Amino acid sequence: MHEWALAKSIVDTVLEVAKERSVKSVEEVIIVVGEISQIDLDILRLALKELSKGTIAERASFILREEEAVFKCNSCDKTWSFREVKNKLVSELGEDNPIHFVPDLVYALVRCPYCGSPDFELLRGRGVWIESIRGVK
Fold first, then answer.
1. Are residues 103 and 131 in the same domain?
2. Whether residue 60 sits in one domain with residue 23
3. How many separate domains does the chain show?
4. What is the rounded distance in angstroms from the CA atom of residue 74 to the CA atom of residue 79?
5. What b/e sequence results for 79-108 when a residue is b if at least 16 CB atoms lie within 10 Å of its CB, and e otherwise?
6. Same domain, yes or no, for 44 and 111?
7. Are residues 83 and 97 in the same domain?
8. What per-residue confidence (pLDDT) applies to 94?
């Protein structure tokens, strides 16, 4: 359900930016979704469409781009993707793993698949942001 809250924040931000820029109609919004956020893109897309009804963004095309999560181990210097460790997490924690709800738990639950170290950094694939808004003045 956090997809709906996220969609509400996105629509509110788009409308605020459009107002600041004197945009009369929002045509396109590109949103980047970090993979580690574990957002259901179909639900987010539906929520964006529903929550923009009756606004200047009602006819906007909401384009969602998922950014792959990539980690780097501070012990062995290897990099890996979230997809490489996700199956292990799902088998240990179930399909509704807590990272879905609290992405920062990745630091407590994930280990380097090469050396087992818990000392790593997330290079990319975290968070959700609006990359661009295009509209008509």
1. no
2. yes
3. 2
4. 9
5. ebebeebbeebeeeeeeebebbeebebbee
6. no
7. yes
8. 65
> What pTM did the predictor assign?
0.85
Residue 132 and residue 32 in contact, taking contact as beta carbons nearer than 8 Å: no
| 26-79 pLDDT per residue, tens | 999 999 999 998 899 999 999 999 999 999 999 999 999 999 999 999 999 999
Task: Say yes or no: 22 and 74 in one domain.
Answer: no
Reported as half-sphere exposure (CB side, CA atoms, 13 A), residue 97 has a value of: 23
The pair of three-digit structure tokens given for residue 36, joined into one six-digit string: 């580690």
Give the chain's radius of gyration (CA, Å): 18
Indicate the pairing of strand 70-73 with strand 61-67. Answer: unpaired
Alpha-carbon gap, residue 137 to 30, rounded angstroms: 18
Length in residues, the chain = 137
The residue segments making up the domain with residue 47 are: 2-68+125-136
- Hey, what amino acid is at 4? W
